[in-house]
Amino acid sequence: MKKPISFFVHHQGRGHANRTMALVSEFARDRPVSVLTAGPHLFDGFARDIEIVPLPNMIGAGVPTERLYAEPTPSVMHCVPLGVAEMRRTMRTILDHLDDRGTGLFVVDVSSEIGLLSRVASVPSIQIRMHGDRADIGHVGAYEAAVGMLAPFDERMEQDDYPAKLRAKTFYSGGLCTTADAVPDKAEARARLGLDPTREIVVVLTGGGGSGTPYAPLTVAARAAPDALWLVLGPTHREGHETDFSNCRELGWVRGVTDYLAAADIVIASAGDNTVHEIARVGRPLVVMPEWRYFGEQTRKAEALVRLGAAVSAPAWPGDLAGWQSLLERARALDTQAIASLYDPDAARKAAGWLEGLCDELWTGASEAQAETERDAARTLSVVA
Questions:
Q1: Strand pairing of 229-233 and 236-237?
Q2: What does the pLDDT look like over 296-348, one tens digit per residue?
Q3: Sign of the dihedral through C-alpha 147, 151, 157, 162
Q4: Nearest to 257 by CA among 223, 284, 238, 293
């Protein structure tokens, strides 16, 4: 029987769960798979037969006393307060599950502390590689403790300051996009959506994570390019003083995001991992405006995109007409092949193959070794007798 592969899946947003489902869908059908998460609902309707292990939600869990709260966090950890019952139950559930199932490989998406826990428990782990300023001892310790890292992006997107010894143990799958909708050409997409076939269209793609996309800068953008139609997908943050313009439409959450991306002449979006690869899959000029994330994750990813000529960016949302006009002109001049080349339709299959192959490699001969250990123990007992 194949060794099980288990996943720890962070429940903030849908990206970690969607990535896990994309990978697991490519596993061999006889590979036992389990997912440990505080967001089991994220896997509702997933067709692959997997075991879901609910974890307590540690986010926002209270520390019982002021004295415990005052204890400093050690530099090797990022967020491990003392006295939190939900944290104890989480760690116990994880350890018991890994032990009970005989997990062969534990894929951590994402948590440095749980990666270290896995190593202490003698279970081989994989860390999902993310962009950002992660040279601190906590991240480096988790990377060194892992048997490998999985980077779900093109190797050209890697940061120059990522250490060579860690890069050597990282598998780059190519740009992994969890969206599978067929991509129409621009004319077909506009016909489906009832959009003008000739007008310039700018699609702004927002999301539910972080602090949200501010709406005020987009009203300035609409004024700066009055002949363009601006379509804003997803939620925005309003401050209360915005003036709406007829060429800027807030559509909220929509079905068929791929159609809107295909209909666009320019896309404006954050540097979220799947967001970037959704746009790369369609191949549209990208204005990337990174949102605040821990460790500067989106900022560093945006820097990589700009360095490769796959996007243009600005230090902050332009607040004037000339700033927007300059940014849009630079976007129009982009060679879309640069961003399109960052998407790999086989990324999930490649990553899944690497994970399964590594798991099998790590445990090849384990049954023979266990049998030999039992024979040695039996011989020792007979000698003592």
A1: unpaired
A2: 999 999 999 999 999 999 999 999 999 999 999 999 999 999 999 999 999 99
A3: negative
A4: 284
